């Protein structure tokens, strides 16, 4: 039983890696379950055994993305202010993944969407982590007078908002440079 479970988990991880590759090559809209299934030597029906919907597979991809972004550590304290800028630069090199994240985020605000719980949980965790990061950098008050808890959703909104602007017009929005400017505005060292 344990061996079968381990094989199933390995297969799921292989499918997620294949989905990441397909998304990186074709973008969110061009990534089909059929293309992912073909990449791992399954039928589409076989892939659906592991991930019952495209959304379920894409949520697994986003969870994997978050593991990379936090260095696999996850949990509170997995982020530092000085590491946010390289994260923004890294995101600028993987538009397919950023596009998938943004598209699913936008769709997830509708009631009953399969990614809604993922994003609700993720943003709660990110705000808490960001408050910890800001407290470590600034103490109980930022230079503008906000508490870390008040500023955390603003930092998160800037990061995600820049992604949307960059996806829509990458020639006009230099996402890493704009975020560096925001950090200066924030008063970061």
Short description:
With 189 residues, this protein is mainly alpha-helical.
Can you characterise this structure?
The protein has helices at residues 2-30, 33-39, 44-50, 54-69, 81-91, 95-108, 116-138, 148-168, 175-186. The protein has 189 residues and is an all-alpha fold. Helix 1 (2-30) packs across helix 2, helix 1 (2-30) packs across helix 6 and helix 6 (95-108) crosses helix 8. The longest helix has 29 residues, at 2-30. It is elongated and about 55 Å long.
Helix content: over 70%
What fraction of residues sit in β-strands?
Answer: under 5%
Major beta sheet, specifics?
Answer: none
Structural class: mainly alpha
Per DSSP E runs of 2 or more residues, the count of β-strands stands at 0
Radius of gyration (CA) equals 18 Å
Keywords: DNA-binding, Repressor, Transcription, Transcription regulation
Organism: Streptomyces gobitricini
DNA-binding region: 32-51
Pfam family, one: TetR_N
Features:
189 residues, mainly alpha, 9 helices
């Amino acid at each position: 039983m344990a061996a079968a479970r381990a094989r199933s988990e390995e297969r799921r991880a292989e499918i997620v890696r294949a989905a990441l590759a397909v998304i990186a090559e074709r973008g969110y809209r061009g990534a089909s379950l059929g293309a992912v299934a073909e990449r791992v030597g399954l039928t589409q029906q076989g892939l659906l055994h592991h991930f019952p919907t495209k959304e379920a597979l894409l949520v697994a991809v986003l969870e994997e993305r978050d593991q990379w972004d936090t260095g696999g550590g996850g949990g509170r304290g997995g982020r530092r202010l000085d590491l946010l800028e390289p994260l923004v630069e890294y995101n600028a090199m993987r538009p397919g993944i950023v596009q998938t994240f943004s598209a699913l985020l936008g769709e997830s605000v509708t009631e009953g969407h399969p990614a809604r719980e993922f994003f609700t949980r993720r943003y709660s965790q990110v705000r808490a982590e960001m408050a910890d990061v800001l407290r470590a950098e600034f103490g109980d008050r930022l230079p503008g007078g906000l508490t870390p808890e008040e500023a955390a959703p603003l930092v998160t909104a800037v990061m995600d908002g820049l992604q949307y602007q960059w996806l829509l017009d990458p020639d006009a929005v230099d996402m890493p440079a704009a975020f560096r400017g925001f950090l200066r505005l924030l008063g970061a060292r």
